[in-house]
Design a protein that fits this description.
By secondary structure, this protein is mainly alpha-helical. It has seven helices and no strands.
Length: 162
């Protein structure tokens, strides 16, 4: 759900910038959107002007980009995406088992996993069109916390990798 929120926030910031740089062009963009939806020129312009006077950012987010309260992140979709991502992400540490390693294999698993987490965070941020650092750190730190918890449970039950 964080990725969708990042996308929506990036869209919002971009639209704020567009509105500050070219408000007339943004108004014309709304007019064209309403004309494409079937309004004649005069009515489309009246609607665009009135909506822009009240809440120009809201009008653009809703009518240009399709951001509606009911289209926010959906937990079921997010859980499915998380399950698929988790399954794919689980393959990365598995590959580390086959990597030539000096000393314990667990060092290779940790290193492979951290690199995989950093790549996943970076790619997710780029796809979302948001800044890269915070989402990448969120994925990396969350993954490391998950590894630490898993290692702790392994220690408790004496189930460790050599």
């Amino acid at each position: 759900m964080s990725s969708q929120t990042d996308i929506e926030e990036a869209d919002r910031l971009l639209e704020i910038e567009h509105l500050s740089l070219d408000p007339e062009g943004e108004l014309e963009e709304l007019v064209e959107i309403y004309k494409e939806r079937g309004l004649d020129e005069n009515l489309a312009r009246q609607v665009a002007v009135q909506l822009s006077e009240k809440d120009p950012l809201g009008a653009h987010l809703r009518d240009e980009l399709g951001h509606h309260p009911h289209s926010k992140a959906h937990p079921v979709q997010a859980s499915f995406a998380s399950a698929v991502s988790f399954a794919i992400g689980g393959f990365i540490p598995f590959l580390a088992v086959f990597a030539p390693s000096v000393g314990k294999i667990s060092i290779s698993i940790i290193a492979f996993t951290m690199v995989g987490l950093a790549i996943a965070g970076f790619v997710g941020a780029r796809i979302a069109g948001s800044r890269v650092l915070i989402p990448t750190l969120r994925v990396l730190i969350g993954g490391c916390v998950g590894m630490a918890i898993t290692a702790g449970i392994g220690q408790i039950f004496h189930a460790t990798v050599a």
